[in-house]
Design brief:
- The protein has 6 helices and no strands.
- It is mostly helical and about 100 residues long.
- It has a domain of about 60 residues: 434 Repressor (Amino-terminal Domain).
- It is elongated.
- Pfam families: HTH_3.
- This is Transcriptional regulator.
- InterPro entries: Cro/C1-type_HTH, HTH-type_reg/antitoxin, Lambda_DNA-bd_dom_sf.
Length: about 100
C-alpha cells in the first residue's frame, strides 16, 4: 500500500475547481485537434510577398529574418518551418498584420 497525501490531493482538486471557474482551458477539460501546418511552398511564399508589394529584403526585414531565408523559400531550396508557415498564412489572410509584426 502506498502512502497518499490526502491534503495535497484535496488542494489539487480545489486548484482545478478554481481554474475551471476562471475559464482556464486544459487538456483535461477540452479536446484540441492537432492540425498539420499549412502548406507553404515556394510559389505561395512568393505570392504572399507580392501581395504585399515588397521586395525580398523588405519582406525579410519586416519578418525579422535574413533576406537569404526568403530567397531560399521562394526558390524552393528551403521550406518555412511550421511556425513560419502559420505566420505567412496569417499574413496572407490579413496583409495589415505585417506592419504590426514590423512594429514589435
Amino acid at each position: 500500500m502506498t502512502d497518499r497525501n490526502i491534503f495535497s490531493e484535496l488542494m489539487e482538486g480545489f486548484d482545478a475547481l478554481e481554474d475551471a471557474r476562471h475559464g482556464k482551458v486544459t487538456l483535461k477539460t477540452s479536446e484540441v485537434e492537432i492540425k498539420a501546418p499549412p502548406v507553404m511552398d515556394a510559389a505561395r511564399v512568393r505570392a504572399v510577398r507580392e501581395k504585399l508589394r515588397v521586395s525580398q529584403p523588405v519582406f525579410a526585414r519586416k519578418l525579422r529574418t535574413n533576406p537569404q531565408t526568403i530567397k531560399n523559400w521562394e526558390q524552393g531550396t528551403a521550406k518555412p518551418n511550421a511556425q513560419a508557415a502559420i505566420l505567412l498564412s496569417l499574413i496572407d489572410r490579413n496583409p495589415k498584420l505585417i506592419e504590426e509584426i514590423a512594429a514589435l
